[in-house]
Write the structure tokens for this entry.
Amino acid sequence: MKIFLILLFGFVAIFANNFTGKFIYGANKNYKVYIHDFGANNLVKSCGGEDIDEITDLDSFVLYVGDKKYIGSKQGSQITFSPIAIVSYNDKNITLKMLVKSVVLPILRDENISVLSHYDSDTCFIKSKFDSQNDTLILQPNSNYSSLSYIKYIDENLTTYQNLISNYNGVHPIFTTVNKVVNHNGTPHDLSQIYDLNSTELLANLKSKILNKFKQDNALEEDEEAKSMFFDFDTISFTENFAFEAEGITFYYPGCEILPCINGGISVFFSFSELSRYKKQ
């Protein structure tokens, strides 16, 4: 599940803006609410011409009812998720007022968050990312990429931060997905402590998923032909670039990692039920 934290920017290559706000997450088994609230923070971006100015807002409000996603907007102290609910919150709870009932969700995460970003008016790139130590967004003044960072999944035990990065190589952008999973205490989540990722059977399953996905994406039928396009198919193993989701874990292999850059990246999903037999005791 996704919650986008849109990056903020200035107008010149050497200018950066810092905003602080609140991240609030409340949920039960049927409803989940994600709130990034930075107050008044609208800025105008101008890039590539006089008539394409764009207003960007850091605030984001997302409601999940089961797997269905609603985007909200804030008016005063209330958040409207049209047409399903009006949401308000206090220090302990989030209240959903719907047509036939009200639902009170406990707040599971309430954190102060900070964004620092840099807008390069020459390349039109936004240059910001999460700080690996504090999970805030930090300025990367000499980097030639844009990145969109957000919280992909969160529960009472861990958080998955995801960065979508576009690197410009002088000809065209190369898109990369980079994930970071941390435990509730802020320490990195070590998946190898939970599952036997060196299991011969599990590795074979990983390679099978990758091969089938690659064949499907490239309209190939023969296994050997598909395998020959990888750098070294037989040595593929589980990556540390993974993201938790509600029903399982997705493993990401960016472009140029296991395939030539021209092929782009590839990702495969394992449900928790698939992984359960490889769980360490």
Remarks:
- Residues 200-217 form the longest helix (18 residues).
- The domain at 191-278 is CATH 3.90.640 (Actin; Chain A, domain 4).
- Confidence is low (pLDDT under 50) at residues 1-16, 43-55, 116-120, 123-146.
- The chain has two domains: 3-183, 191-278.
